[in-house]
Design brief:
The structure is a homotetramer of 318-residue chains. Chain A is built from 11 helices and 11 strands. With 318 residues, chain A is α/β, with parallel strands linked by helices. A 6-stranded mixed β-sheet of chain A has the order 7-4-8-11-10-9. A 3-stranded parallel β-sheet of chain A has the order 1-2-3, with helices on both faces. In chain A, helix 5 packs across helix 11. Chain A is globular. The interface between A and B is large, with 41 and 41 residues.
């Protein structure tokens, strides 16, 4: 095992055993950060075998019956789980996913604007950190003192995932939010933290001060606030004209905050703003962890039964 | 004198004498790259004293009677010079400016699209190099492994200058192009070369292939092509999905080309593209040089006379 | 006031008032991080006025009667304080300094080797972080993708300060350690953390394993270990063949550790090793803080009296 | 084929066909930049098949009968070729190698000092560019804003290759120079150009001015100077106190120069200096090219015969 984080490997992790994709793990649920080349079927196998699967992989994000979840944004999408289980013949297992790293911060910041004013159009250009590409990931020869204006598949994800996240579960399918959305994605020589330049068109006329207030006052409800990884104010609003900055602000809220600033008028749409989120925390591991915490709080992670025992068990979705 | 370019100082430059802003220079015209704190009045003084002023400073760019010039884009704006001289009481002197470093590349790439399809809307996000801030300019502590999403005054310039560059001189004033234009400006840890992510809305429906053809086939006329610093094809079109990149493409056309790639559909406007230009060459010194070359070719730099001699001279603008 | 640390300014600091160099401060002692252009006389003024001065500035470091202090290395040098007070006519005031940022880590790592084997020669090449030059400090244009093989005055400091730190106070002056010492200093594009490649010649023959053991087992005494900023093991020994690395290891021991690794044979001297220390913590603010903590623990910071009251007071040095 | 240089692929290269390691190439000699996992036997196969092999790979560099060649340093080592052919039973084929990228610049700069004063000891610490590790090579995650104080095998090469380069061919074997040599090797976030901090001990006492003169006046003979890739003055001496710098000086002499500066006293040995060489040109491709040019000029690349024809041919070495 090769350890890539700067802090030394914790004792509790050092002694963990790496196993293959065996369907006989002794655990209440599984996290999946599998490569997309194998995640598709592996996650289905685990769900079918009774394991709730909390996935960071992209394969099932856009499935019609799989919640793409940011607890602060669309916790109501968990209503799709019983339908998914019924639909796929899963018993206690199911799949829940979190969005792509650059989608996560964007949608979290836009959530209070959607709630307060409605959202018609989003123009977003990302400046994404190298850690988003994994390890070894980006070659130093490619990114040293450079920008690479292309990340494979990223613009597609950013133009589709927010539609689902900000859309609704109607009882049998997810209905898109119907927002006009255009994304340009770039890789920049920054270690951690995806910065995004965003212009938005609102449904309701709002002053810049009203927009700032909506962002500044965004607060989650008591249930969410009680989750171990949650922040009561997951959107951090900065007043400085030159913030957020990846190197300086990426650790806000232990990496679980989306940091927003530079709220100003947009001559083309309504409002320009700049946001930042930690791609490895809010955009990946932390997102999955928070999803699992919400699932646990709502009772979705109890009573795992293997298919062979399932005639004895009350399926969760009944 | 402190020399900042990588190549050693050329002999011809080593022996030049630095003088103050004296109005008795023995030369046919002057280049101005003065700091904006002094350029305003200094350039007027030189013009009034009979010197054509070819300026890279921002002070007079948006003046109603001063051409903001990119030869490949709006050479016809030179028609304003006689008016400016009459209006200001200049004799042989006048002021011509080149645009801001991030405007230059943008407008050069958009020119063939304006010609072929017309342009209604521009959304642009810049990733600008540190050399754009001069020396010492950006502190390493601010930009090392970081992005600064703010450059003082830059978004204003980018939202106003293209309107003038792509607009018309109507005989007594410049008429704006009337394009909807929104700019976000960022500083990135790149030495040279401003990268820009652009979405455009066209007046006329065009396929992506037609857009690519327009960009690829852009060619200047024989007069321009004959200028020493000019390129016959100042827009370089790249097919690779991950280009242009600042470190790799900044020297295209000796820094005088604007490099464009990633032409693809925009779900919000019509076309997305990514462009790059060398901020120190096409965006500054090279721009001023090319402007001077065009002025020389058109006879604007001859016959300088000082005001005291001007009763003997035929003013240029008659 | 402009705040440069990444974490927001703490409330306790936000309300501090910045005053001039007034000799009527209401405090038990002063920290000095003054620019060397003023530190020399200002620190003397404060000491004369009765204030113990805990300084990070370079001016008095090499004074014959001023301790240059690293608590883990030469706490015995505090014996020079009474002599300094007598010598200079200070009453309760005195000056104690900490070393240059690149000296601090070097000497801390060498201390266990001096104790165990004696030290004859040191060859050191530094790769120093940009934060070592303050703010704005190094221009991004100079260091982006580059190395600058020169830091004004740095090699001199590194070749003289360790002699004093590892030397002895003989009752009336500091006697140099008499080590042969050669330093090359470079600036590299790293935010925090000075890395140093060191070869040492030992007085006593030692195996590489003995050297590793000496480094690994270095531990401070109970008095030092009880200081708030102190580490019981201020030298952190890494086994990995490619560590320490500035970005990954700079925060070891909250920035107060010196991290060492790559202990291997030197064909020219005896042992090669690579070390790292946080230039802003162990090399500056943390060093001064630890010095003040030791002074406080030993009773040097009590009983400040102004000169006008001094006929009433028991001078510390009696 | 993936093209990694910044300038577009030249037409002449675009149409070259990539073949396997076939011993029936139609050419006078071969360049080898093979991976060391295959270079060993492949180069022997080609030499045995009659091809002169001009290699940049490390496998045969230290072979007792293979010249490790820098034309400006040890052209006389070509005398080993006939012996190599006889010894190995090669006919027209043979192997000649160039040194490791960090050795090349070091030895080139030391050559005039060896000639003028003799050399006893070398202490060298390298700060090596990322391009030295090939492509994809160093992961951006490892080197961004960081230094990696380890390059596999590099210190060994740097401590052995100069001994051979500066040693002598005695008719049947290479005799080492017998210099005491210690190397520390580091990777820094620089694209191209290996910087080296060097202290040297000379055999003969010399003033700093004499050392500077020796470096400044180093000039190759007429035969070498006439080679297409050669420089008459391959050592470029800089006076500025903060040069050479990789980003600013790497292209000196089209990458074929070694740039040296900061000549100053060393308290431990005699002289400190800092040098720089382009690792991809002087340290790799350019080195091999210059070797081939010298071989061609001396007639070593004519008359290639395949082994089956060799009874008809005059072997070169007779």
């Amino acid at each position: 095992m090769r350890w890539h984080l700067d802090a030394p490997i914790p004792e509790v992790a050092r002694n963990l055993v790496v196993k293959g994709l065996e369907l006989s793990l002794d655990c209440d649920f599984v996290f999946s950060a599998l490569d997309s080349s194998v995640a598709g079927s592996a996650e289905e196998d685990f769900a079918r075998a009774g394991y709730p699967v909390v996935s960071n992989s992209r394969n099932h994000r856009m499935d019609a019956d799989v919640p793409l979840l940011i607890p602060e944004v669309n916790a109501a999408h968990l209503d799709a789980i019983p339908w998914q289980q019924k639909n796929r013949g899963y018993h206690t297992g199911f799949i829940v996913t979190n969005p792509n790293c650059s989608t996560a911060g964007l949608v979290l910041v836009l959530k209070p604007l959607v709630d307060a004013f409605g959202l018609e159009k989003i123009f977003v250009v990302t400046l994404q950190a190298i850690s988003g590409a994994g390890y070894p990931g980006v070659a130093a020869m490619d990114i040293q003192g450079n920008v690479v204006p292309f990340i494979s598949g990223e613009e597609d994800k950013m133009e589709s995932e927010p539609q689902k996240l900000l859309g609704k579960w109607d009882g049998s399918r997810f209905v898109d939010a119907g927002i006009g959305l255009s994304a340009h994605c770039n890789r920049v020589p920054v270690v951690d933290g995806h910065l995004e330049c965003v212009s938005v068109g609102l449904k309701k006329i709002a002053s810049l001060d009203e927009v700032r207030e909506a962002l500044r006052n965004f607060e989650v409800d008591a249930e969410l606030a009680s989750l171990p990884s949650a922040l009561r104010n997951p959107v951090v609003f900065l007043n400085e004209e030159n913030r957020p900055q990846p190197r300086r602000d990426v650790h806000a809220g232990n990496g679980m905050a989306a940091v927003v600033g530079r709220v100003r008028e947009c001559p083309l749409l309504d409002v320009k703003l700049t946001l930042l989120a930690h791609n490895l925390v809010r955009g990946a591991a932390g997102a999955a962890l928070l999803n699992a915490e919400l699932l646990a709080a709502r009772g979705f992670l109890k009573h795992r039964v293997t298919p062979s025992e399932s005639h004895l068990a009350e399926p969760v979705w009944r």
